Description:
- 12% of the residues lie in helices and 34% in strands.
- The protein has helices spanning 11-18, 68-71, 159-164, 177-184, and strands at 4-6, 21-22, 33-34, 40-45, 51-57, 76-78, 95-100, 102-108, 116-123, 129-139, 146-156, 170-172, 174-175, 201-205.
- By secondary structure, it is mostly beta strands.
- It has a five-stranded antiparallel sheet. Strands 4-5-11-10-7 form a five-stranded mixed β-barrel.
Amino acid sequence: MCYxxxxxxxxxxxxxxxxxxEIENEYHLIPELNGFNYPETAIIMDKAPTxxxxxxxxxxxxxxxxxxxxxxxxxxxxxxxxxxxxxxxNSINNRCLIPVHKFFEWQWQDSxxxxxxxxxxxxxxxxxxxLAGIYNLWTNPENGKSYRTYSVLTTDxxxxxxxxxxxxxxxxxxLNRDMDxxxxxxxxxxxxxxxxxxxxxxxxxxxxxxxxxxxxxxxSD
Length: 221
């Protein structure tokens, strides 16, 4: 799963990395975002790949009412089942990139999760990378205001993430620079699911150093 990530980068860094231009800048640039606060973040949509705009984390399907997030969690969508579920199936061809600096996950040290270690994870050699997202343009029926809303796609964990996220064994779909275009242009969902795509991730324990007891994937780039 993926509920926390960092957006600690500048607009200039985003523009240079994506060869895109900041159209809207009302997004948060902070070390750690909590998805359950439903923050607004920078996104790049398939229909305008040279524009950096704002999206709200937590996809609202077109039929959703204003209180949808009290009843449903759409921060993440499983890439294996998104096409079959009511909340996502009409949005799977609406692709977006979610720029991040790193994301965070906890490793359980006991069977009940009372003791945990926190890790930060990133694509090796990338100061910025993308999480694969799907989006929907949702209009609030109560006030007529429109929002770009999105979900982060997740997949089965690779070797590294299976060791870290050792309960659910999931990970976000992390795109290197070469894969961004393929995602936006609508390449098949299954091509981005593990093990078909295996990002070259590295991790560091918070308060520690780069984790060397895990072997980053070698077949992703």
